Amino acid sequence: MSRFLAVLLFWCSLGSAAQAMPPLTLPDLSGEPQTLERRGRVLLLNFWAPWCVPCQAEIRHLIRWQKQYGKRGLQVIGVGLDDPRSLGNAVRTLGISYPVLVADPEDQRQLLARWGEPSGIIPYTVVIGADGEIKHRYRGILDETIFSALVLPLLQSASP
Amino acid sequence: MRSQLYGLFWLLLFLPISVRADPALAQVGTLTVTSQDLEEALASSPMASAFPSLDADAQAALRGDLLQRLVAARLLEQEARRLGLDRTEAYRQERAALARGLRYRAYLDRLRASLRVPEAETARIRRELAENPEAWEAARAAYLSQVYEIRKTQMLEALKQRYQLVIYSTRLKGPIQPDTLLAKGAGFQIRGKDLNGQDPAEIGRRLQEQVELQLVARAAEAEGIDIGAKLARYDRERLPALLLEQKVAEWIPDEQTLRDYYQAHPELGQVPEFRQIGQLVVANREEAEALRARILAGESLYALAGQYSIDPYGKEHLGDLGWLPAGSGMPAIEAAIAELPEGQVSPVIETPKGFHLVVVRARRSGMQKPFDAVRDRVRQALIAERLPAYLAQLAERFPIVWQFPIAQGTAR
Question: Is this model's pTM higher than 0.90 or not?
Fold first, then answer.
């Protein structure tokens, strides 16, 4: 999975984002540092934790959307706020099929604040367009209605 | 048996893979425990939210524990039925009241599910809250709530006509006897005894609730709304609990039984002595004796532990192990410090870990808690002691057949 993420991020890094985005370098589940510099795909950057029940409910949607819309340019990336062992167990148990980065829960408030959520509440998702701009920020469970309204239009424009 | 248990472990480890087919995990008499049952029990357990982050073996252990509980519940359910606990008048009334409530709720749930937010309203919400998509769902819910209240009022008016409802409002003002008729409709009557209250305003409110409940529940029944699965689930959960209540009353007929049990098991209320311990560990007796001599000559055990101890934790914390309960140390150390005066260094103590010098800086006395402080714990302990034997007895009447393929395949 980390190799896949590295390839994705390399591919995403072609060109520069029109709007400045906060830098994000975090280890993946195998401990390899990954830097998020994206372009070319629509990213859902989802902040979550294994103990968070709403996050678990939302992850089921994210897995399905990644499978359904991956070919149309969607890439979900999870930012897990827990220790790597707990996150690895949650990835296995919930069947998470997209890349997951590991963030220190001690940094939750500061990390989310950098991405536009100063209260540090999860689940929290940032929608980044194929042009690298932040399009939407969403607190709470991203459900089918919201996905259809906020993300699907971006995918249509991002489709080759 | 052992290979069966290994099979159970591996099955439970990989269970999520096979859940989709909902295979039976165990046959208990005429009842079955399926994977779906196990997943539902897991989802409603206190461990549900923490479950995904557990290691695989801890998940398997938790599933195993829940499976055993489900099997026990099936045993108790069948015994409860055999004893006729599902046929008592009290249980029938309890179940009938539940059925009314379930029908009422199902009918209103159906009404709520039939409501839609019109396209134009959805467009308006999105337009007016374009910068705040997190508020869309709340706005939709508020719209639906308003429509629901209107539709519910209309529905109730229609049901009052259908069931020819008559409410005797003037009787609410006078003294209400248990048999005072307060409302009636086709197939039902509501009397004073059905409302339980003294205050006329309170009785009036309860009457409205009862009327609504009766009308909606009857409409649900007439329209064939199925609550069978929910009633069956109620039986599955309630009957084992009823039987267990009976058995507990049998095992614990009075308070004296609990007191006698506590007397026989004083460990249930024992709080051990706590000691604040300092320790130094080295690899050989000569070094330990030399260091003991330095301590007796006035040097600090803690300073020496920070310098010489081979115990990494002790060295890092300058020999301060904090407050530890009596009985938590290695036997040789426990024996040596049991009577050691506070502040005095122990003789050299040899253990498989090395040669120890120990100081007890302070002690907090242990105590035996009074019965009232541990009553619930004693009760739980007594039940935990009696229940396995009772379940084993039931398993002879309702045989348990484990039905997971791996276990069957590995049983040799």
Answer: no
